[in-house]
Amino acid sequence: MAAPELRLRAPRPELLALPWDRALAEWATPDVPLRDLPVGPSRHLVRFVECDGELWALKELPPRIAAREYEVLRTLEDMELNAVRPAGLVFQPDFDTAILLTRYLTGSWQYRRMFMRLPPDAPKHRARLFDAMATLLVELHRHGVFWGDCSLANTLFSRDGQVLQAFLVDAETSEVHPSLSNGQRAQDIDITVENVAAGLLDVAARLERPDLEPGFIGEALAIRERYERLWELLHAAPTFGFADRYRVEGTIRKLNELGFAVDEVSLQPVVSGADELRLHVTVGDRRYHATELQRLTGLVVGEGQARILLGDLHAYRGQLCREAGHDVDERTAAQLWVMEVATPTMHRAHAAVGRSGTPIQAYCDLLEVRWLLSERAGRDVGTERALQALARNVVPSESAAQLMIVETPTEPFSVLDDD
């Protein structure tokens, strides 16, 4: 019997002790701490184990495909792109298989949970999901990554303020290039639209709602437009006269509002000796607001969350300046905001939602609900009323806080019983 070859990036004691010399299908409780997690259909066997206080996903693959996917995921991690993080690779020569080990993405969920828990006539929440998928595809393509099998089933989602973040889960068909051609990008978009449409039709069938099919197909087709709109914004090269170069600021502001940092701006004459200039913007990572919030407060949060929290911080600083009768520097205001406002209130908000999700996300939900209720009332309704709305789950229908129901698990992860 040939011993398995282990490559573990997290050589934890309990991980090392797993029965790597046995086929994954033969693993059973109580010898192995298997956990039962709801997942969609997969071409390969996928199982979950809890070791050393963490959850891990294990996928059985042919050795060549497993090694390739492992390297792609390592590359995506180095690029800091949204994808599951590879934790190890185990070759099992006796079975001519390999096991790819990845970290379970805490706080994530599959699309089925949202579609089954929210009413099907809530397209605004689905729009957040499709925006996240289009954004992920744009980010992958910007870095030369061809996904090859983007679908609802191969994507995990997590909440980030009022938006969603999408994460690549399956990289079996993915390729990394220096850059992608327009044809490669178009092919990846075609695959995405087709796969998403199929996934949505499956949802309609599960809900026994054939009347939803035309709308679902339209939403799948619209992913292409979402993608192209963002791609064009990031790669546009507008021209204008030298006297109109103030327009550069507007372009930068628009990119910053979407969360993109600008690394470099280049203004080049369209024709030698002429007044007309062409603008080229080199766009960096999509963490503009998150980086600014971390600089001021030390908080590490998602980009969508940071945008909301910075707005709250700026409002608080304005209040401090009015009360003090003079300017309060941003670092002092940030420190006071963290201690006196954000930290205590986020824990109250987290308690109000039954500790579902994270305290940061609960605070973001509180701020949005307070704003929406205040807009309806024509006055500031205050924090207490917004907390009551969260606790009673009577938030406005258009609020992203409606997605709290998706974050709440039906029950704790159970031990898989093979008997």
Automatic annotation (TrEMBL):
InterPro entries named among the record's database cross-references:
DUF4032, Kinase-like_dom_sf
> Which Pfam family name is an example for this entry?
Kdo
Chain ranges passing through the membrane: none
Judging by the UniProt lineage, the source's domain of life is Bacteria
What SUPFAM superfamilies does UniProt report for this protein, alphabetically?
A: Protein kinase-like (PK-like) (SSF56112)
Question: Boundaries of each DUF4032 domain copy?
Answer: 229-394
Q: What is this protein called?
A: DUF4032 domain-containing protein
- Which species is this record about? Mycolicibacterium rufum
